[in-house]
Structures are given as structure tokens and as C-alpha cells.
């Protein structure tokens, strides 16, 4: 039991990071991680040690997030007035602008692409582990990543890598 809890504890920072990237809200992310940990600990008997605890926890977190999104769609999205920018606010530093532009572009991705991109780019998971968490074939993961990266390049105006550009 303590070995299981130790493994869970080592995953908490990565779960928080992934949840914050998915929700873009620190409070919602913390609630999501808490729900994930509560569910994982209360249902630890369902964990089959055929793979790492980390992958199982990410799967639990991802399923909880998807359920919350479905519930939110039924209720509608409230407007957070604190996030509405004031028109007279001076522009932040260029680096912050680029980061905010990238974050907004990631938010516009379809959920399947966003989930895949964040597991690979943010968490640095191996492709095989990310595919297992998402319960998709490796080829599907690669396809989603390719589409996500292409959409981000288009949204941010970033050119393709030199060896991938088409010559006219």
C-alpha cells in the first residue's frame, strides 16, 4: 500500500502541470488533481500493475477532465470577467505576447489534439506511453500531433521547419 502511495505522490507535480495546461485555470486544475488522487486511492484495487502507476493516473485525470467538459457543455460556459482584458491595458513584453498567443492557439485545438500535444510537449512522455494513456494507436497519436503542430504553426504564423517547407 505504501509503495503505491509513494508512486502516486511522485506523480503529483506532473499531474498538476498537465491539469493546469488542460484547464488553463489553477483552481480548476487543483480540483481536478484532487479528484484524480481521491479516485485513484479509493479505487487502487482496480489498478493492474501491467504498466506504470503514472500512466494509470494520467488516464484517470484525463477521463475526469473529459467528464467535466461534457458536463460543462450541458450547463454552458460562464464568462470570467477577470479574464476579459481592459482595452486600455498596455501591451505586455513581446515574449509574453508570443506565449499568450501560443496558449490561445493551443486552446483552439480540438480536444484530442490538445491532449496529445500536452502529454508530449508539456509532460515529455514517450510517444508509446502517451498513446497508452489516450487509449489510441501510436500512429493515431502521431497523426494528432502532426495536425496539432500544423494548426499551431498556422495560428501563430510560425513557418514550418526548413526541411518541411515546400519550395515554390
UniProtKB/TrEMBL annotation:
The keyword rRNA-binding is annotated on this UniProt entry: no
Domain PhyR sigma2: 9-61
Record GO biological process: DNA-templated transcription initiation
Source superkingdom: Bacteria
One protein family per Pfam: PhyR_sigma2
Gene3D superfamilies xrefs: 1.10.1740.10, Winged helix-like DNA-binding domain superfamily/Winged helix DNA-binding domain
Annotated RNA polymerase sigma factor 70 region 4 type domain residues: 103-151
Ranges where the record places region Disordered: 73-95
GO molecular function, a single term: DNA binding
UniProt entry keywords in alphabetical sequence: Sigma factor, Transcription, Transcription regulation
Keyword tRNA-binding part of the UniProt annotation: no
Family: Belongs to the sigma-70 factor family. ECF subfamily.
Annotated protein name in UniProt: Sigma-70 family RNA polymerase sigma factor
Organism: Devosia litorisediminis
Amino acid at each position: 500500500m505504501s509503495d503505491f502511495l509513494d508512486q502516486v505522490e511522485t506523480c503529483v507535480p506532473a499531474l498538476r502541470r498537465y491539469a493546469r495546461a488542460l484547464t488553463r485555470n489553477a483552481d480548476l486544475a487543483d480540483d481536478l488533481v484532487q479528484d484524480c488522487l481521491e479516485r485513484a486511492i479509493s479505487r487502487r484495487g482496480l489498478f493492474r500493475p501491467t504498466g506504470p502507476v503514472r500512466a494509470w493516473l494520467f488516464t484517470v485525470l484525463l477521463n475526469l477532465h473529459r467528464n467535466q467538459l461534457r458536463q460543462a457543455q450541458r450547463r454552458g460556459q460562464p464568462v470570467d470577467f477577470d479574464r476579459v482584458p481592459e482595452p486600455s491595458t498596455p501591451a505586455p513584453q513581446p515574449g509574453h505576447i508570443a506565449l499568450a498567443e501560443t496558449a490561445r492557439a493551443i486552446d483552439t485545438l480540438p480536444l484530442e489534439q490538445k491532449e496529445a500535444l500536452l502529454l508530449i510537449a508539456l509532460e515529455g512522455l514517450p510517444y508509446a506511453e502517451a498513446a497508452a494513456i489516450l487509449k489510441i494507436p501510436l500512429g493515431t497519436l502521431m497523426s494528432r500531433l502532426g495536425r496539432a503542430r500544423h494548426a499551431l504553426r498556422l495560428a501563430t504564423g510560425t513557418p514550418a521547419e526548413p526541411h518541411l517547407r515546400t519550395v515554390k
